[in-house]
């Protein structure tokens, strides 16, 4: 499926890259929600977390490893950070290509904008 992220992967839309290998690309979010806001994506098309298969799990593990590496390189490993995946409409997922937001560089706000309830 063609999305803004597939165009970033193929290079037809520019991005400020932080990390790249054969399987994974990381680049700065165009609308940063924190002083450090990097998106980490698989180059393989996976629409959302709902579409991750058991075969994809090594790739997901590698994304965590890449997140750890980027956090260290950008100086937020010790101060702390969030790694967030939005999946589906209620999460606000806007781009249907699996991605993880790496956020840090300041005290981050509440985890969600809504009041939570387990009722
Ligand atoms: P989500 O709401 O989880 O789907 O997040 C999508 C993210 O992609 C948003 O934070 C956008 O700011 C970001 N985004 C959209 N287009 C671009 C782009 N061309 N370069 C970098 N980030 C982008």
UniProtKB/TrEMBL annotation:
Q: Where is the HIT domain?
A: 4-113
Motif Histidine triad motif: positions: 97-101
Q: Which Gene3D superfamilies match?
A: HIT-like (3.30.428.10)
Q: What is this protein called?
A: Histidine triad nucleotide-binding protein
Q: GO molecular function: any one? A: catalytic activity
Report the active site residues.
Answer: 99 (tele-amp-histidine intermediate)
- An example of a Pfam family matching this protein is HIT
Q: Tell me the organism.
A: Paenibacillus albidus
Coiled coil stretches, renumbered: none
